[in-house]
Amino acid sequence: MKATKKYENKKILVLGLAKSGVAAAALLHKLGAFVTVNDAKEFDQNPDAQHLLELGITVITGSHPVDLLDEGFVLIVKNPGIPYSNPILEKAIKKHIPIITEIELAYQISEAPFIGITGTNGKTTTTTMIHQLLNSERQKGQAYLAGNIGFPASTVAQDVTADDVLVTELSSFQLMGVDEFRPHIAAITNLYEAHLDYHGDKAAYLAAKWRIQENMTSADFLLLNVDQPVFQELSHHTQATVIPFSTAKKLDRGACLSQGVLHYNQEEIIQASELGVPGIHNVENALVAIAVAKLSGVSTAAIKATLTQFSGVPHRTEYVGDVAGRKFYNDSKATNSLATEKALSGFEKSRLVLIAGGLDRGNEFAELIPHFKGLKAAVFYGETKEKLKKAADSAGVETVHLVDTLEEAVPSAFSESDEGDAILLSPANASWDQFPNFEVRGETFVALMKKLSK
Fold first, then answer.
1. How far is CA 187 from CA 133, 147, 262, in A?
2. Do the annotations mark residue 119 as ligand-binding?
3. What are the E-state strand segments in 260-376?
4. The Mur ligase C-terminal domain covers which part of the protein (predicted)?
5. pTM of the model
6. Any known ligand binding at 384?
7. Do the annotations mark residue 121 as ligand-binding?
8. Does the annotation place 123 within a ligand binding site?
9. Stretch 68-77: mean pLDDT, rounded?
10. Most-buried pick from 21, 62, 179, 260 (CB within 10 A)?
11. Is 56 flagged in the annotation as binding?
12. Which tens digits make up the pLDDT trace of 120-134?
């Protein structure tokens, strides 16, 4: 960890806990700051706050009192999920109190360089691919996962050396709170409309993502998806060295898909059919990972071996097993139609049985109709089953079953499948009608698959 007296004897407010808030508060306390933590959850139901109090940190819970700012704080480290419309933050902005997120704090103390991955879709899979690639033949140091995946960056950054590298998945929320943060390699996987309730509009969302490159120089590398016109334009507005990637056009420089082969700077790396995970979206993810690996000195042989064996990230089009010749895929993370569209693109529909359904948020699923066409069968469950059936009927899907629960859906899907088929859970809905989160939903799917084999 870099030695710093920057925060010594400074009054700092950590707003919001969860993993990143706890990590930031503990680090600032270690650096000699006078830390106050403020979290909305009541103290008796807040083990994180109780732990920090035991460390000697001032803890205020149950609400976010605006008069806290009368205490003379010189900095706020906020939980990324707390919007800037929070009254404390609005007042802090008026008082010109700097506001950062925990990733900025991690950067300031890290001896290791950062690789930063952001975008709307594919961040977790791409970050995980990169992590595995950079450790595949590493002789010195280690690549660490941090940020939205793995451990909080400010925890990991305390122990790394200059021989290591931090591979970080970064959200738009985190990037709004950076100041000095400068990754050596950064990538924006893609950009679609998302989190507009937080950002207000797509322009503000893009601006937050674009902050990943604001401190980069020509010695740093920025990977941009040139299939999207917005990044073709923005590629001319950065100091970083731009590395383009594309699944739609052949590139002489950068990473691209051409005639079913993934290339980097015109070198053939791997056949798309050899990737361990299916779908054009995973080709896009792999192109980013290949470019980062090549820029980091990883050999083509190691890249190919790693990506061939890569089985995905839990709950994201993850291959989870084979029962009687049927391959099962868990895509429980698909909590909206766009994610399910991406998953469906990776399969031969005539050999695919889809399981979908979940919480009704008012969507009619018309956007899924063209992607349902050609499905061998579909099983829909939960609150949205009737709406999904309407879309499947419009798509001409001949075999559709409606059930109440996922527990009924899995054996129903199996009964409609034959040897050589795939069974995919890609719900297109949030899980909260029947499960506390998408992880539990995915774990339940895997358990039900295993039950079929008994």
1. 16, 15, 17
2. yes
3. 261-264, 267-271, 318-323, 326-330, 352-357
4. 315-428
5. 0.81
6. no
7. yes
8. yes
9. 96
10. 21
11. no
12. 888 989 999 999 999
